[in-house]
Amino acid sequence: MSTSRSLATAARVLRQLRHDRRSIALMVLVPCVMLFLLRYVFDGSPGTFDAIGASLLGIFPLITMFLVTSIATLRERTSGTLERLLAMPLAKGDLIAGYALAFGLVAVVQSLLATGLALWVLGLDVVGSPWLLLLVALLDALLGTALGLFVSAFAASEFQAVQFMPTVIFPQLLLCGLFTPRDTMQPVLEAVSGVLPMSYAVDAMNEVLHHTDATGTFLRDVLVVAGCAVLVLVLGAATLRRRTD
To answer: What residue stretches are annotated with the ABC transmembrane type-2 domain (predicted)?
Structure first.
């Protein structure tokens, strides 16, 4: 891998995103809008937003980054751009790293806006540090980016890329502990939830929600989410195809 080539790829992707206002709106504004709606949907149920808002602060960015990244990468391949880039002295790892850097920068902006909105506008009540909350939100967005880059290699069209969402995201959403504690699930489902990265993302948010300082469980959860993101990026580089047949 070459740092200069990865940075050049990231710069190119950011230039393209700058002219794609709909994608920018989807990545940056949609999580904020969803949190805003969620806050007032539960306006008549005191404490409900505080109970689930932190978890969804991580889940919404993950989902939006997954969608945008998977479609954007697929578009590069179907248009022939990816094939032309890989014909140059550009390794797959350079390309994936460049995309991860570009979308990671967007994820930083997204996480800052969503966390600031939740804490200081919508009044999300957490015991822990806002910086810990921001860290988890950012890692979740980066995980969504990594998953999007990975699944784009297996889709032949944008429609197929969207279809991966029920396959990759929905099972994690149902089993992550958002709707019911994982230890009350049927044993097989509890075991499956234990290997899904979103479960650790939700657990980390709950640790920030209830503890003043970073606990051992929080550190474990953060390391698992970060490790999964790195692992999926490596797999994405290994499975990246030059074009869609």
So the answer is: 18-243
